[in-house]
Design goal:
The complex is a heterodimer of chains A (78) and B (214). Chain A is mainly α and 78 residues long. In chain A, 72% of the residues lie in helices and 0% in strands. Chain B has 2 domains: 85 residues, RNA polymerase sigma factor, region 2, helix turn helix motif (Rna Polymerase Sigma Factor, Chain: A); 86 residues, Arc Repressor Mutant, subunit A (Orthogonal Bundle), CATH 1.10.10.10. Classes of the chains: A mainly alpha (78), B mainly alpha (214).
Chain lengths: 78, 214
């Protein structure tokens, strides 16, 4: 089956939706064909995927010590 | 707090019913599993632990008052995060209007095309890299450099793993806006973080030029 070509610009516009599985199968197939042929777009895809992983695994806001206790006191005092 | 059986953990619905009747222990039981999410949501907007805690406390107290109006159309945690986001935005406007661009003015250029700054290859990150302080610091700086509307969407989706629909609901924007902002946020983070040819982690324009030979 042949897939209709897609430009780099269109690929960048959809790259985040592609990672989230938010595009239809036809567009997905066009993008995959593009990634096989275009090293630049493949690099952008790999980088964006790494960002999702890094942010998911590496970003952690430490809840301040005593947060829960202070919140409980506020609730009880309301 | 009542429960359907001696050894059974009360359901969310049961806890809500008890809390609506004034049982504050039940309300705390509802809130406690959401604490980290609530704090993180406030941090995504305020970026300061003290302010985020204040906004989180205010949000929880507002949720207690508004609980009888909670209709269960979404998860309790999503509803609470929505209240927190609103509270944090209110606080940002009130306390720091002079320091930050107005959230109302952040609509420009959202539909415009984003062009990646370069096409440096960035292969899969070995998990041990995440233990490196250098990488964690670069990640923090890159996040801080994002405009608030991109940072909040990235944190809700990629840290808190809310769905696109939930993120849109919590932020009060369309799902299309969530997708556009998420694309911007991820590509800007990639531009800021892609390791240079010498393996250094960059997180700003200055280093970017230095570590990238192409």
């Amino acid at each position: 089956m042949s897939v209709i070509e897609i430009s780099c610009l269109e690929v960048w516009r959809e790259i985040s939706n592609y990672l989230d599985g938010e595009i239809d199968a036809a567009l997905s197939a066009r993008m995959e064909a593009h990634f096989k042929a275009c090293a630049h777009c493949k690099a952008v895809l790999d980088g964006a995927r790494n960002v999702v992983k890094l942010v998911g695994d590496g970003v952690e806001y430490q809840v301040p010590e005593g947060f829960s206790k202070r919140l409980y006191s506020k609730i009880k005092g309301k | 707090m009542s429960s359907t059986g001696a050894n059974l953990v009360p359901t969310e619905t049961e806890l809500i019913q008890c809390a609506c009747q004034g049982d504050k222990e039940a309300f705390y039981c509802l809130v406690q599993p959401c604490e980290r999410g609530v704090f993180t949501a406030a941090m995504s907007i305020l970026n300061n632990a003290h302010d985020a805690e204040e906004a989180a406390q205010e949000a929880v107290l507002k949720a207690l008052t508004a609980l009888p109006r909670f209709r269960g159309e979404c998860k309790f945690s999503t509803w609470l995060i929505q209240i927190t986001i609103n509270e944090a935005r209110l606080k940002l406007r009130k306390d720091r209007r002079h320091l930050y661009e107005s959230l109302d003015e952040q609509r420009t250029d959202e539909e415009g095309q984003y062009f990646p700054r370069d096409f440096a290859d960035w292969r899969e990150i070995p998990s041990e890299q995440l233990q490196r302080t250098e990488l964690r610091d670069a990640l923090k700086r890159a996040l801080d450099s994002l405009p608030p509307k991109y940072r909040e969407v990235l944190i809700l989706r990629d840290v808190q793993h809310l769905s696109i629909q939930e993120t849109a609901q919590v932020l009060g924007v369309t799902e299309g806006s969530v997708k556009t902002r998420l694309l911007r946020a991820r590509l800007q983070m990639r531009d800021a973080l892609t390791p240079g040819i010498d393996g250094s982690w960059s997180s700003g324009k200055q280093e970017f030029e230095k570590v990238r030979p192409w």
